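Data card: per-record layout.
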Amino acid sequence: MSRVCFVIIIQAYNHNSDTCSGLPEIANLATTATFPINYGDAVTVTCPTGHVLDGDDVITCNWDTVFSYSIAPSCRIREFYMRHSNYCHSDNIYNKYVSVTSVAQ
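The structure for this 105-residue chain is written out next.
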């Protein structure tokens, strides 16, 4: 006589909240949304003047309070802005620090 065995796997998730309390920590990323926002809500993100948004401009609050997106949003300095500005700027671009110390005119 053969025996039939079953394995049951139970996964538990720590679900503490149905809200996201703020934007992900991405340098210069901004929104006009008021936090906290609810699970499933989407917010539009932008970058400040002189920067370009790469990646998704709409991100969604997940059940685990982390935002989801297809391509991670990031802000980078607009090249034209860097070449034609008369100030020094330090910015986090793709998690690498770049310092502009002089601008050709």
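Known properties of this structure: The domain at 19-78 is CATH 2.10.70.10 (Complement Module; domain 1). The beta strands are 19-20, 37-38, 42-44, 51-54, 58-61, 67-68, 74-77, 89-93, 96-100.

See the next section for split statistics.
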